[in-house]
Amino acid sequence: MKIKAFLQLIVLSIALLGGLNKSSYAAGSCHGSFFNPITDPNWGNLFPITILGVSLGGGHNPPTLYEPPICICPSRILGIPMIGIGITFWEPLYIAEVQREPGCLASLGGLEILGGYQMQAAEMQGPALDDGNEAHMTRMQVHWYMYPIFAVLETFKELMCLSSSGFALGYLTEIDPTHQNDLWGAVFSPEGTLFKSPLAHMACGVDAVASTTSYPVDPLFWCLGTAGNLYPLTGNSQALNSNQTTNMQVLGKFMAKMHRIALLWGTVGPQAQCNATPFPFLVKSQYRINPVDPVTTNGAPIYFGQSEYRWGLTPPNNYATHESTTYLIWQGQQCCMRF
Question: Which of 250, 243, 287, 233 is nearest to 265 (CA)?
Fold first, then answer.
């Protein structure tokens, strides 16, 4: 926790040094609205809640999200094994902005910071391919907020497994050179070269079908379903069928990097039955993705890799200028509530 607080302090310090500069951008280039923690979330993502193995509220969980009805875990003070009640639930913890305009904080009403970073605005390139088509590439920035809604609203306080932190701007990719450049980004993901083969890309087809029809395949950690290959872990992305898919891929790349540097941990699976544990790869099935801007998406939960035709390309979600997107991230939690 001290490391996270230190990193947050660095991010905010650099942002403030960059200045609040509204004159450095074209008028109206930064848009946004203040996030409303009551009306913006898709509250259907909260369910199901399981207590003692009994599912409440409807819906289904991925197989990875499971806590035994009766669990045994060490106490938080002396480490003595104690019996507890197994609980699973989904907690809204983070807000992520995938932004075309550098320094545009959409969730804070369109606040502009980092006035000297205009050169990192999203780029679109179209080099000709052998078949005469164009392979469009784009680079997007990500702004990451800690926003534990239950803690902010002071709800479910009796549940000891909830996050107790408050709101904070935790990461700005504009100040991270490894986010801008694929070669530098390989410092955190040297294994990416192993997954450039046609066979590795073919395996992503399996993940695409599974993500769209049920849940992502976590062992295929280099795949992001219909968004294709996850590597390299930078903000550069081959433009896909839609802005929705491209932005989702950039979000997945960023969160995979957060796992790699231990700012996101694994909270599902047998290894997390007592506590969250460091896990160096993106655990796709432990996250539900909830777009909240420019349009709020309701309905069934969205998982990484799910086809955008299920959630992003049908009215009212097919917003005409859907270039930048703000997401609320729900994280699956396993809790052994000790007596």
Answer: 287
> For 204, phi and psi rounded to 5 degrees?
-65, -20
Q: Which candidate, 303, 335, 305, 274, places its Cα nearest to that of 62? A: 303
Specify the pLDDT at position 158: 59
What global pTM score does this model have?
A: 0.86
Give the pair of three-digit tokens for residue 8.
Answer: 């947050």
Q: Please, which residues have CB within 8 angstroms of residue 78's CB and are 6 or more apart in sequence? A: none
pLDDT of 311 strictly over 70: yes
What does DSSP assign to residue 317? Answer: S
Provide long-range contacts, Cβ within 8 A and 24+ apart, for 66-69. Answer: 66/268, 66/334, 67/273, 67/334, 67/335, 67/336, 68/273
Does some domain include residue 51?
no
Is a pLDDT exceeding 90 seen at residue 56?
Answer: yes
For residue 127, being part of any structural domain is answered with yes
* 186 to 222, 256, 279: CA distances (angstroms): 14, 13, 18
Q: Considering the domain boundaries, does residue 140 fall inside one?
A: yes
- Name the average pLDDT for the chain: 83
Domain count within the chain: 1
Q: Which domain holds residue 150?
A: 2-44+93-267+285-331
Residue 256 has pLDDT above 90, yes or no: yes
The values of phi and psi at residue 206, to 5°, are -65, -45
Residue 54 lies in a domain: no
Q: Which of 234, 122, 123 is nearest to 179 (CA)?
A: 234
Q: How far apart are CA 75 and CA 274, in angstroms?
A: 10
Range with lowest mean pLDDT among 67-71, 157-161, 304-308, 309-313: 157-161
